[in-house]
Specification:
Elements (H helix, E strand, L loop, with lengths): L1 H24 L43 E4 L4 E3 L7 E7 L7 H14 L6 E7 L7 H11 L6 E5 L2 H11 L4 H4 L12 E5 L5 E6 L3 H15 L3
Parallel strand pairs: 3-4, 4-5
Antiparallel strand pairs: 1-2, 1-5, 3-6, 6-7
Length: 226
């Protein structure tokens, strides 16, 4: 009888350990791992990577985002100073977009959640129909989508300034953007990662879950940069 009880206890322990192993393996996945130990820099629409030491003097003359002044969903003025010493992720959208914008907004919400407690990281979404997306319209959209003020800025303003930023500064349409006139409609799914010195450090497909996860990992890599 004793040997049967011992065998029962051993089998029971093995079952418990196997069950725990299965539960652990079914838990949340590890954070995505960045592709590289340090991120490249970009300076034109083909997004050819350039590798520099962050302290390299060449970066003082390297492409960076121009000065700008826009208005967010709370009616506050948003400029490059808003992102001083901040990492930020930017995209372009419009509130009545029936196509790619809802998915992009959903993925920007995931980024907001990922960095909610991190004051080092902000989000910036430009309306490409600023004449329609007034401050009240943006505010209503922000409330509907769970946008948190001071973390995620939805901005409107002068259309020419917004389009110039998109095509000439952020290169969101890649090489296609350089072939369009300033008044042609700007429409893109790209998310752009900007460092604390207003340099472009990555471009990502804002519709793709894996690409957005990689963006999160790359932000964390960028935060380690000194």
């Amino acid at each position: 009888m004793n040997w049967m009880m011992k065998k029962f206890n051993i089998n029971t322990n093995i079952f418990i350990l196997m069950s725990l192993a299965i539960l652990i393996s079914c838990g949340p996945p590890d954070d995505p791992i960045s592709r590289v130990d340090t991120l490249p820099y970009y300076d034109e629409a083909t997004f050819t990577p350039h590798w520099f030491d962050p302290k390299d003097e060449i970066l003082t003359q390297f492409h960076h985002i121009s000065l700008f002044k826009l208005i967010n969903q709370d009616g506050d003025t948003i400029s490059e100073n808003t992102f001083n010493e901040k990492i930020y992720i930017t995209n372009f959208f419009f509130t009545v977009c029936p196509g790619i914008c809802p998915k992009m907004t959903s993925n920007m919400t995931k980024l907001q959640e990922a960095f909610l407690e991190d004051n080092d990281v902000l989000l910036l979404s430009h309306s490409v129909t600023p004449e329609r997306d007034s401050v009240p319209v943006l505010k209503k959209y922000a409330d509907k989508k769970g946008v948190i003020s001071d973390k995620w800025h939805l901005v409107t303003g002068d259309q020419q300034e917004i389009y110039k930023l998109g095509r000439k500064d952020y290169f969101v349409e890649e090489d296609l953007g350089l072939q369009k006139s300033p008044d042609e409609f700007l429409h893109t799914e790209n998310f752009i990662l900007i460092d604390k010195n207003r340099h472009i450090r990555g471009t990502y497909n804002g519709l793709n879950k894996t690409s957005v996860e990689q963006l999160i990992a790359d932000v964390r890599t960028l935060q380690k940069e000194r």
